[in-house]
Structures are given as structure tokens and as C-alpha cells.
Amino acid sequence: MNKPDQQRRTFLSHGSKMLGACAILGAGTPLAIAAGSSALAQQETPMTTVGARHYYLDNVLLETGFHYQEGEVVATRTALHCLEINNGKIVAVRANAVRPDASLTRVDAGGKLLLPAMRDMHIHLDKTFYGGPWRVQSRPAGTTIKQMIALEHRLLPELAPHTQERAGKLIDLLQSKGSSVARSHCNIEPVSGLKNLENLMAVLERRRSGFTCEIVAFPQHGLLLSKSESLMREAMQAGAHYVGGLDPTSVDGDMEKSLDTMFQIAVDYGKGVDIHLHETSPAGVAAINYMIDRVEKTPQLKSKVTISHAFALATLTPPQVEETAQRLAAQQISIASTVPIGTLHMPLKQLQDNGVFVMTGTDSVIDHWSPYGLGDMLEKANLYAQLYVRPGELALSRALAIATGNRLPLNDKGERVWPVEQDEASFVLVDASCSAEAVARISPRTATFHQGNVVWSAARS
Fold it and tell me: Reduced to 3 states, what is the DSSP secondary structure of residue 111?
């Protein structure tokens, strides 16, 4: 056995034991903290880290309902509250300053708005220029995916030594924008082998106390084209959560064989599927229909398939979108969209109206694919609102859902549905008066919490 094979076997034997998710470093916070019942406990002093697992988060602004005028939502009602956090859960939601146990640590949220944690559900943590010197890769008009694959063959060895450091810095960026949950695609192809997966899992293991991340094994150079099936199977054994794929017709050259191989790997290892589908030709529509057909015939894949990008949906007529959306919803196939701007007008609102779960994500953050990514899901919600909904208090507040995994403080009737007792204590404090303002203005974040831990705060930025 040669040395690379020995290293791969060692990684496979240990990698499957690693958690493919999570973490954070304790961070400072702009909040104030006090403990006990003495006069000193009422003073607000700067805090570096919330070390306690059981504490009060006071002066938190929560949405409580809508104001109506002639039947239309015109504003959002809010009130200050106190949350009791214990062992990563919200165990009580009380009126502000109601703190029954005077011995508990008290954290002052400063009247900032509490919103659910953001979720970046399509990012590539394993290959980026972020954290290094500024660099933009020229992509002349007409550059094809296969040409980009050829570029990666040359570029990946250069990026490999920096994978762990830069992935960590990307996680820092996401946390500063309120995201503590992500799904990262990770290159699996002959150039990288399993090295990117090994590096990414190592970073996520170190950060798992404050960052939860699913991993998609992504055959960026084509599952069939690069003959990566065996590597993909090894990635499943090592702990990846999803089987990825890429344009089965334009890249792999055989739609049915490519998709069948991808789905078979998922079935064999009990994993989910998340495919990059950029194709806007009729082949893209055919691929979507083929995947729906396959899930209909394979019940164990129901609710476990995501189509990322799905640009072919933009080529359908409204009646065709309606029919396709109903089929997607019936099989609980989700769509991960980066909310593209330009000539593509994605039917995201129509998909949602038909019950399709639509997520969003950064995709690239300053890499050889694009220099524009900000890692900010609130910015994605803002872009979605500008492109797909008419301005208004209710519509803007609903637009937040694409950034939070459909979790909103108020339901459509204006009833508070979050936070409630036993919810996970993962949320973000925002300098805004309500969700609608936060989406419209992309309001500043002041602190991010994950399972009760303060993972980022503006005080240290």
C-alpha cells in the first residue's frame, strides 16, 4: 500500500467518528452582564464572554403582533422581554426584568431585536480566497463550467494548504452576520481526493460548540467525468451527510446514468442528496423531472433531496411551474437558491406558495467563481424581497423566512410563534425595530448566539 492509500485509510477509520457539524470560539459581546441580587447586580458592565450555561437575557425586543389599518398590516408591535436560557434552551419567556432567581447571571441585550439564527444553506467552506490577500479571478464572457474545472485542476493544490485557516475565517464571517447553521459543499475529486473533506471536518469539529454544519460531498469535476464514484463512496463512509452532483448532461454527458449513480450512493449509505443543477436548457428541466420521478419511486429519499440553483425552473411557464412545484412539494424536495440577479427570474415565490421549502445561501465568498459573496443571509432576504415581493410590512416580514429556514417570530395572523419555551437558544440580536425593517435595511447585527453560547459580538469587531 502506498503512502496516499495509507493516509486515506487512516482518515476513513477516524473520519466517520467525527461529527460532521459545528462550532465556535467563545466571543466577546456588546451586551452587559451582572449576577446576583446585590446593587452591583443591577449595574451594566462590559462583558467578554457569557460563560454561564444558565442565565437571563434581559431587555430583549420581541415581536408580539401586527397593527392593522383597514385590514392591512401597517406596522409590527413589539415589547421588551426577559429570556431564561439553560443548557442551550430557552426555558422561559417572561415580561422584561422578571428574574425569579437572583443568583443567576443577567445579560442585558440593550433593547435589540431578537430574530432566529440565520442559516447559510449553500456555501463552499473548503475553497476560498477569503482570509488571504485580495484576489479576483478573471472569467471572460462565455467561460464554461468545463473550463472552470480545468482551472481548478491547477488551483486546488495552491489552495489546499490554506483550507483549514480560511474555512475558520469564513465561519467567523458567517457568525458575524447572524448565521450559526450552514450546509457546506466540499470538493471530492481526483485532484483533492478526500483531503478537503478531512480538513473541513477537522475545522468543524473544533468549532462545533457554536456552529452546526452539514457536509455535501461534491464531485465538482463531474461524478462520471472525473470517475469519482469510489471517492464519493469513501466520503460517505467518512461522515459526509449528502451526496452531491453536478449538471448531469452538460458535464457528465449522460443524465440518467449520472443521476442514477448519485441516487444509488445515497440509498446505499442512507444519505441525502444535494445537486448543483445550473442547466437552463431543456436538459435541466428533464433532470428535475427525472429526479422527482426517482424520489416518487424511492420512498426512503422523500424529504432528503435538495436541488441547488435549479435555474431550469426559470425557463418554465407559470402553469408549468405550478405543476412542477406541486410535485416537488409532494416529495418534500427542497430548493437551495442563491437568489440570482440578472436575466434569470426564478419562480421562488410561486414555489413557496405551493409548499416547496426554499432555502438560500452564499455559494461563493471571494473565490475563483465569484468575488461578490458577503456571507450575509439577511442581505439575501433583502434581495429576495426586492425581486419577488411587493413592499409592505407583512411581505417584508415574511421574506425573512428564506434566511432562517422558515422560522419567523410571528405567523401570518400576527401570533407570536417564536421564541417559545424549549426552543433552541440560537438567535441573533439586530439593531432594528422589527423583522420588516431588518430585511429592508439589512440592519446591523450586534450578537449571535448558538445553543446558548455567545459566538460573536460587535464589541470585538
Answer: coil
